[in-house]
Amino acid sequence: MRYQYLGRTHDFVGKTLWEIVGNLKNYGVGRLIIRHRFDNYPEPCYIKILKVAALPNPVVEIRPTYINTLWERTCMVLCERVFRGKKFERLVQIDSASYKTDYQLVPKDEEYKYLDATKSREEVIFSRTMEVPPLLREVAIRTLKAKGKPVTEPRMDVVLNEFGVKTYRLAKEGEKPTYVPTIGIGKTPSPSLYANCKPI
Questions:
Q1: Which of the four, 31, 38, 76, 176, has the lowest number of CB atoms within 10 Å?
Q2: Assign residue 96 a region: left if phi > 0, alpha if psi is -120 to 50, beta otherwise?
Q3: pLDDT tens-digit map of 72-84
Q4: Are 115 and 87 in contact (CB under 8 A)?
């Protein structure tokens, strides 16, 4: 009889973090761990273990007899993280995602491939201003005309999320940006779909 698996599928490849560090000397301090999830990036992505601690099983007051198998596979790991060739300035603590079976240990003879890699993602420089939406543009122009002021093309400031490690930033005064945000749907990845379409 054929087995039929139920539940959500995933693309995890590897072991849980506790399965790896629990079988290493000194819990793998100083070793490199990679996640299969980040293998698609051309830049190196890895974590370097600095400290490992086990997590106690929580006391469930509502259902004391309930046993959560996920908590048996979780641990707390303090590590240095390198994402897409850029090292985080602060140490990272991994605990809630340590149960996922997506971690792989890097052999010692292959660590140089990650440590010596100098390739990092190119930094994108955003312009400080961008065009306003069409309706807001018409309102701004009509307001300027009604007040008798000279009509200029309205622009609005660009505000970026600067939390965490980013590979983009705002251009400084007088610096030439590499990317100027525009209003619209942008360039389609499949131009052949619209080759025979005529404008209305």
A1: 176
A2: alpha
A3: 678 899 999 999 8
A4: no
Question: What are the beta bridge partners of residue 33?
Answer: 47, 105
CA distances to 85, 134, 136, 156, 165 from 41, rounded to whole Å, are: 10, 37, 39, 33, 16
List of E strands, 92-146: 92-94, 103-105, 124-126, 129-131
CA dist., res. 100 & res. 102, Å (int)? 6
Alpha carbons 18 and 22: distance in angstroms, whole number: 5
Burial class of 121 by CB neighbour count within 10 A (0 to 12, 13 to 18, 19+):
middle
Q: How far apart, in Å, are the Cα atoms of 199 and each of 194, 195, 196?
A: 10, 11, 10
**DSSP 8-state secondary structure symbol assigned to residue 98:** T
Confirm whether pTM is higher than 0.85. Answer: no
* Cα gap 3→29, rounded to integer Å: 40
Question: Is the CB of residue 106 less than 8 Å from the CB of residue 14?
Answer: no
